[in-house]
Write a structure and sequence with these properties.
single chain, alpha+beta, Rossmann fold, 3 domains, five-stranded mixed sheet, about 20% strand, globular, binds adenosine-5'-triphosphate, binds magnesium ion
C-alpha cells in the first residue's frame, strides 16, 4: 500500500453530495409531512441487529439472508470468549489456540447490518409492549439498508428506504387501502408522474398451500419443466411462487398459462381482496391487478403491491409492500395483524431527477464583500443580522480586493453583494449591488433588511 494511496468509497456505496442532498432532504421532509397527516409516528431503529432476527423474519432461504447480508461476530463477545479460553491455558495447554477457532464459531452472537427494517419494527413492537397501546400502531422510518448485491443503476450495497408499518388491531381491507393511498399521496406530492401500482392477493394459510401444490404439480410436468431455465427449475422445489416472478423472456409464454391464484382464493381471501379494490376506488387510487406479483416469503399473505416509476431501466420498482399477519408471532409476540411497505429512496430520487423534478437548490442571498480591517466588525454584524432574518449569507473569512470579492460572489451564484468599505462604515450607508444587472443602491442597516424582505 503506497503512501499516496487514494481511498475510494467501497463498491456499491456512495457519497451523496450537495446540491443533490437538497433533493434528499426535500423527499424526506415530504415523507414526514404526508405520513404525519395519516397519523404515523417516526421510529428510529438500530443499523445492526442479531443475525437471527433477520434469519427468522425475512427467512433463511431467501437471497437476502442466505447471500446478501453483511454479518459478523460481535467483536466484544469474541474478546470475552477469547479471554476465558486464554485463562485456561495454564491448566489446559492449547486452550488459547482453541479460542481463536471457537471465536469464529457460529454459536457466537452474530450481528448483521440491516438489509430491511420490517423485522426491526416488529422486534421493537414486541420489545416495548406496543400491543397495549391503542391499536393499530402506525410507524414509519427512513434510513440506510445494506445488501451485498451486484451494484448497477438503482441498485447499491448501501441504499436508503422510506417505509411504514401498521401493526395490531384489525386486518380490515380499509387498512390495506389506506396504506397504499398514503404511498400514492406521497408520490403525488413529490410530483412523481407515471407511477404504476400493481396489486394482487396471495391468499392465506388456508388457501395458498392448495394453490402452491397445484402450481408445483403443473410446473413439475416434464413438458413444462424442461422449458424452464435453471433458476425456475430449482424454484419448483424451493419456492414455486417465485417462478411467477421470472423476467426470463423464454419463460413468459409458459408462465402465462399457469393456474392463477385469484381463481383459487378461499372465500374470506376473495372477499378481502374485493374489498381492498373497492376501498382503493373510494380513495381515487388507480391500480392494476397483476396475478404474477408474489412475495416469496411464507409470512406474507393476502394483499401484496408494488409500484414502478419511469426513467429507471430494469430497476424500476420504487416500492414493495404487503400484509404479513403472522410475522410478529414468528418473532415471539402475540398473534398480531401487520401490513407495510418500503420505498427505495435512491430510485425515487433517480426518477425525480430524470423527470426534472429536482427543486432548485437554495441560492446564496447575500455575499458580504468587506474591504479593509475597519469594515470587518460591521461585516460580522451585518452577516449576523441577515442570517437571523433567514437569509443565506456568505461572509469571507479573510480580506479581499473588491474585484476578487465580486468575482467570488458571482461564482457562488449570489443574488446580492453587500459592499462594506471604509466609506460605508463611516457613513452608515451600506451599498447593495444586484449581481444580475449590476445596479447599486445605498441603505442603512434597518432599510436594508426591510428592502431584502420584500
Ligand atoms: P428488487 O426486485 O428490485 O431487488 P426487492 O424485492 O429486493 O427489489 P424490497 O426488499 O421489497 O425489494 O425493497 C423495497 C424497495 O427497496 C424496492 O422496491 C427497491 O426500490 C428498493 N431496493 C431494494 N434493494 C435495493 C438496492 N440494492 N439498491 C437500491 N434500492 C433497493
Ligand atoms: Mg432484491
Amino acid at each position: 500500500m503506497s503512501e499516496k494511496q487514494k481511498f475510494q468509497a467501497i463498491k456499491g456505496t456512495r457519497d451523496l453530495l450537495p446540491p443533490e442532498t437538497a433533493l434528499w432532504n426535500h423527499v424526506e421532509h415530504t415523507a414526514h409531512a404526508v405520513f404525519s397527516t395519516f397519523g404515523f409516528g417516526e421510529i428510529r431503529l438500530p443499523i445492526f441487529e442479531p443475525t437471527e432476527l433477520f434469519a427468522r423474519a425475512v427467512g433463511g432461504e431467501t437471497d437476502i439472508v442466505s447471500k446478501e447480508m453483511y454479518s459478523f461476530p460481535d467483536p466484544f463477545d469474541l474478546g470475552e470468549l477469547y479471554a476465558r479460553f486464554r485463562s485456561l491455558e495454564s491448566i489446559s495447554p492449547g486452550a488459547g489456540h482453541f479460542a481463536s477457532i471457537a471465536g469464529l464459531s457460529p454459536d457466537n452472537q452474530m450481528i448483521s447490518l440491516r438489509p430491511e427494517a420490517t423485522a426491526s419494527v416488529c422486534r421493537a413492537y414486541i420489545q416495548h409492549g406496543m400491543h397495549s397501546l391503542p391499536q393499530p400502531v402506525k410507524l414509519y422510518y427512513t434510513g440506510p439498508m445494506f445488501r451485498r448485491e451486484r451494484p448497477q443503476k438503482g441498485r447499491y450495497r448501501q441504499f436508503y428506504q422510506i417505509g411504514a408499518e401498521v401493526l395490531g388491531g384489525t386486518d380490515a381491507p380499509a387498512i390495506d387501502a389506506e396504506v397504499i393511498e398514503m404511498v400514492m399521496t406521497f408520490f403525488a406530492r413529490l410530483g412523481l408522474a407515471g407511477v404504476k401500482l400493481d396489486i394482487n392477493s396471495i391468499g392465506c394459510r388456508e388457501c395458498r398451500p392448495e394453490y402452491v401444490k397445484l402450481l408445483k404439480a403443473e410446473l413439475s410436468k416434464p413438458e413444462i419443466k424442461e422449458k424452464l431455465g435453471a433458476d425456475s427449475q430449482r424454484r419448483i422445489e424451493t419456492n414455486p411462487l417465485r417462478v411467477l416472478d421470472s423476467k426470463l423472456e423464454s419463460e413468459q409464454p409458459i408462465i402465462e398459462k399457469l393456474p392463477r391464484i385469484a381463481e383459487h382464493l378461499c372465500a374470506a381471501c376473495a372477499a378481502h381482496y374485493a374489498s381492498v379494490k373497492h376501498n382503493l376506488v373510494l380513495r381515487n387510487v388507480a391500480y392494476h391487478e397483476n396475478w404474477r406479483l408474489v412475495r416469496g416469503l411464507d409470512y406474507y399473505m393476502r394483499t401484496t403491491f408494488e409500484i414502478t416509476a419511469p426513467g429507471l431501466g430494469s430497476q424500476n420498482a420504487v416500492c414493495g409492500g404487503g400484509r404479513y399477519d403472522g410475522l410478529i408471532e414468528i418473532l415471539g409476540g402475540l398473534p398480531t395483524k401487520g401490513i407495510g411497505f418500503a420505498i427505495g429512496e435512491d430510485r425515487l430520487i433517480l426518477s425525480l431527477q430524470e423527470a426534472g423534478k429536482a427543486p432548485a437548490p437554495r441560492r446564496l442571498d447575500v455575499y458580504v464583500a468587506w474591504m479593509g480591517e475597519k469594515a470587518y466588525d460591521t461585516a460580522v454584524r451585518a452577516a449576523r443580522a441577515l442570517r437571523g432574518a433567514g437569509f443565506a449569507v456568505e461572509l469571507p473569512a479573510t480580506a479581499q480586493k473588491f474585484g476578487k470579492a465580486l468575482g467570488h460572489a458571482d461564482k457562488l451564484g449570489a443574488r446580492y453583494a453587500l459592499i462594506l468599505g471604509e466609506d460605508e462604515v463611516a457613513s452608515g450607508q451600506w451599498t447593495l449591488k444586484t449581481l444580475s444587472d449590476g445596479s447599486q443602491s445605498k441603505f442603512t442597516e434597518p432599510e436594508l433588511l426591510a428592502h431584502l424582505k420584500l
